[in-house]
Amino acid sequence: MKRQIFRGVIMMVMVMMALQVSAQKVRAQKVSWTGAYMAEHCAGKTAGGTSICYNTELVLEKGSDGRYHGTMSIDGWQTMVRATVYAIDNGKSLAVFYQSPQEDNMGFTVEEGTLLLRMQKKQKRIVTIWGEDMKEAEFVTAMTRMQK
Predict the structure, then answer these.
(1) Which of 31, 43, 48, 70 has the most CB atoms around its CB within 10 Å?
(2) What's the DSSP call for residue 82?
(3) Phi, psi for residue 18 in degrees, rounded to 5
(4) What CA–CA distance (Å, rounded) separates 139 from 148?
(5) Residue 108 in contact with residue 83, Cβ under 8 Å?
(6) How large is the greatest C-alpha to C-alpha distance in the chain, in angstroms?
(7) What is the pLDDT of residues 54-89, one digit of tens each?
(8) Of 25, 53, 26, which is closest to residue 38 (Cα–Cα)?
(9) Dihedral pair phi/psi, residue 54, rounded to 5°
(10) What is the pTM of this model?
(11) In whole angstroms, what is the distance from residue 118 CA to residue 97 CA?
């Protein structure tokens, strides 16, 4: 009986140690999304032969409210988008939402709270799932890569 209790206590201690190590690994892997991100998409040429390309820059900083806040700029053929955005980190990915147009915005506006993109870091690359409004405006395709 004493041996069974002793084995039980040893097993409990080992499980607790394993849980503690796992928790430390999770904390060590916590991702910061603060920084600047870039994407480029070219959608062919105009009838006159001019390239139709778009460069997207997303700049984020973590706020005191736990959310990320920043700006999104899109420049390219007949395009100058300037928007304020906010982002929510759910632990595995970051969802970026449209907040409002900036003063020098020309064109693209959607409702506040519209999902623009979702990013997830996988090893050394960023997987980006673009929102439908971004794809419909042809600023990106599903295959457009976001880079830090």
Answers:
(1) 70
(2) E
(3) -65, -40
(4) 18
(5) yes
(6) 89
(7) 999 999 999 999 999 999 999 999 999 999 999 999
(8) 53
(9) -130, 135
(10) 0.78
(11) 9
Structure tokens at 71: 């700006």
14-52 per-position pLDDT tens digit: 656 665 655 444 444 567 999 999 999 999 999 999 999
C-alpha distances (whole Å) from 89 to each of 36, 62, 68 are 16, 10, 8
Q: Which residues contact 51 (CB under 8 A, 6 or more apart)?
A: 42, 44, 45, 77
Q: What is the distance between the alpha carbons of residues 141 and 131, in angstroms, rounded to a whole number? A: 10
Instruction: Decide the pairing of beta strands 125-130 and 115-122.
Output: antiparallel
Dig out the tokens for 56 from the structure.
């997207």
Query: Which tens digit of pLDDT belongs to each residue from 84-125?
Result: 999 999 988 999 999 999 999 998 999 999 999 999 998 888
Residue 71 has, within 13 A of its CA and on its CB side, a CA count of 10
Grouping H, G, I as helix, E, B as strand and the rest as coil, residue 93 is: coil
